[in-house]
Design goal:
The protein starts with a helix and ends with a helix. The chain is 31% helix and 10% strand. Strands 3, 4, 5, 6 and 7 form a five-stranded mixed sheet that branches. A two-stranded parallel ribbon has the order 1-2. It is built from 15 helices and eleven strands.
């Protein structure tokens, strides 16, 4: 959301995130943004103004989404999940900042069944605070907005009662009604092949067995979409800040060592189908990716989410390839481990979708986006190598505790950290 709204023309001045590893990655990519490593439960609007040093400046928009595990269609859905209360804290922050507008995003599951009651309560709470909501709400599919992925997200537009409400963006391409059954097979642009075909095979670089970055010589012909991801297109930066980066280094591409048996199964799986043993989806070159998931954090078992199988190579896609499928340009970096990197992508909104949403908010505010002249240096690369422990120490916060820590009360933090790092580097196969 930060990147998409920056590309639409906004300045991102503050970001609130409870996970210190994610805070470090955000700080690397947005060095001018104040990162606040706390839960919104602990913060007031004045706290954010003070930490971000914005004084009494007008806040045009607050964007965000509460953790979606309580709403997700994957697993059990429980209306009274305590994590859902964070959505109300989001509205409190919006009100305390006296923001002109807000955008709340979440999973499609929030609109279905008994969860609609919570959504209706959210709308009522916003109205009680003096904000109106664009109704009927809409679930937007990133596949309709220039992202090579089938990913549906609820988007709620809110504004002060005296301000104009943003309209939903029109889809860039038209898809059939039965999207879920057909998206992986449709020749829509950008396709999986257009997103990935110019990237070199990570398995051809020995250095990527132990690291996530390597120098490479570009030999492939990029698609139009790939040109934008490489920032070689004239409009690739949109209205965002140009970053100072080295395009000759392939980043976020740590290899996964699959067994020969797994590779054989991957080869035998038809594109657009699920491999029956691993349950990994094999990408179809002319279609869209399936929804990229985040897996779970340490509080819920630290399980790695399955990455799809590359359409050409008998392996799972790398974090960089996931980023391409999500709409992240190549300068954007993630934690160097596959586990944290995949979580950072799977938990996020595709930037092209966020950019389309941000542009509608900008229009409603009657503001005109301009291209900044400043070239921004990215943060220190050590931010991307941080573990849970080192990131917690860097931000001077308590490391998030795992589920087993809460149950027994006796698990040492060092043991938890060791297990987390083991899981982060574990081979998917």
């Amino acid at each position: 959301m930060s990147l998409g709204f920056e590309q639409a023309g906004f300045d991102i001045v503050a970001a609130v995130e409870i996970d210190p590893v994610h805070c470090a990655a955000h700080m690397f990519n947005f060095p001018h943004c104040t990162v606040i490593p706390h839960s919104v439960v602990e913060l007031s609007g004045q706290d954010i103004r003070t930490k971000a040093k914005i004084g009494t400046r007008r806040v045009d928009c607050v964007i965000g989404g509460a953790p979606c595990q309580g709403f997700s269609l994957i697993g059990q859905r429980v209306l009274d999940d305590p994590r859902n209360a964070l959505a109300r804290d989001f509205l409190r922050i919006v009100s305390e900042l006296n923001a002109e507008t807000f955008v709340f995003e979440n999973v499609k599951g929030l609109t279905l069944g008994k969860h609609r009651k919570f959504l209706e309560e959210f709308v009522s709470c916003a109205e009680a605070l003096g904000y109106k909501i664009r109704l009927p709400w809409q679930v937007l599919n990133a596949g309709r907005f220039g992202t090579p992925q089938n990913r549906q997200r609820l988007i709620l537009f809110g504004s002060k009662s005296s301000a104009k409400l943003a309209n939903y963006p029109a889809p860039w391409n038209r898809l059939p009604v039965d999207e879920d059954a057909q998206l992986a097979k449709l020749p829509l642009g950008p396709s999986v092949k257009e997103a990935l075909s110019d990237l070199p095979d990570a398995n051809s670089f020995a250095d990527l067995k132990s690291g996530d970055s390597v120098k490479f010589q570009d030999a492939a012909t990029p698609s139009r979409y790939a040109l934008e991801m490489r920032c070689q297109d004239n409009d690739a930066w949109h209205f965002g800040y140009v970053r100072n980066w080295n395009p000759s280094i392939l980043t976020s591409s740590a290899r996964t060592a699959h067994s020969e048996i797994s590779k054989r199964r991957f080869r035998e799986t038809a594109p657009g189908q699920t491999e029956p043993i691993s349950r990994f989806f094999k990408l179809a070159p002319d279609g869209l990716s399936n929804t990229l998931r985040a897996g779970t954090d340490g509080s819920r078992g630290a399980f790695t989410s399955p990455r799809p199988i590359h359409y050409k190579y008998p392996r799972c896609v790398t974090v960089r390839e996931m980023a391409r499928l999500h709409g992240y340009p190549d300068w954007f970096r993630f934690n160097k481990t596959k586990w944290h990197g995949a979580r950072q992508i799977g938990n996020s909104v595709p930037p092209p979708l966020a950019r389309a949403v941000g542009a509608r908010v900008l229009s409603a505010l009657k503001l005109t986006a301009t291209r900044p002249f400043e070239i921004v240096d990215l943060g220190d690369a050590s931010l991307l190598a941080m573990t849970v422990s080192s990131a917690s120490k860097f931000f001077d916060v308590t490391a998030p505790c795992s589920r087993r820590d809460r149950k027994s009360g006796a698990t040492k933090r060092s043991q938890i950290e060791t297990e987390r790092e083991r899981l982060a580097m574990k081979e998917d196969a």
